[in-house]
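Support case: user asked for a sample of complex input and structure output to validate their parser. Sending the pair below.
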Amino acid sequence: MLWLADVAQWYEDAVTTVFSTTIAAKAWFATAAIVLALVQVTTATRMWGHIKGLLPFGVPSVARVHRWSGRLAFVCTLPVFFHCVFILGWQTPDARVTIHSIAGSFVYGVFAAKVFIVRDHGYPHWVLPVVGGTLFSVLAVVWLTSSWWYFTDVRFGF
Amino acid sequence: MVLHGREVRLLSLEKAIKPLILFLWVWAAAIILAVAQPFEREAAAPPPAPPPAAGGETVPAATGDAARGQTLYQDNCSSCHGSAGEGGVGPALAGSGLSAAQVRAKIDAGGGTMPAGLVSGQDEDDVIAYVDSIASG
């Protein structure tokens, strides 16, 4: 898997032109993803007929923001995925890292199930919010056990 | 089913099974990739020795509390360098011959996947004392 080592080296060189370390890059990409995931939850709530006062826009506009924030959030998770899976791998040295490894392994599985359910219109009305909420919760756990730890215990900076 | 006066459709097993199988496939793939870690990075070479100090001064040895440093090491360093410094994602420290000054330089500057300043102050001195004890062992 020499090519993958080359890709990892290229990735490390690329992100360290902006960030101090690849861990810092991971923390900020994950933060961008969780912020966009919050946009997802808010716009989805509006699309489901709630918080009209908070988001007084038409559902088509909100739906467009929902779709694009989702796409961007997915893109932001890709460098995090690469770093976690190919550079760090599965680790269980303490509770924080163990919880992070387990929750992190769920992310794309829940994401795939959610996209599948979005595209199949035959599901009961409550299923999509439940799966979407589950995806957000998983992302929140992943963020709290990595980026939050990094910003509070290591350093807050690029 | 009626819940709070509203008709709620239940999810049939037939409808539940497809996304569940999809989830399990992707989850299994993620686990396999993460556990297998398809490539092993080359063990990083120890940082170059610092140049000798002017006037023939010697580099100070580690002065921290190695026992306390071991606890701090387990909390902050073991996930990458191994619980006994045997290496893992990060290079092996046990028996590496790294000097206290080299360890301090790496902790302060970070590099690669290691963030700078993971420990500082007295904590850093203690971790350096512990690493020094296993590096020369």
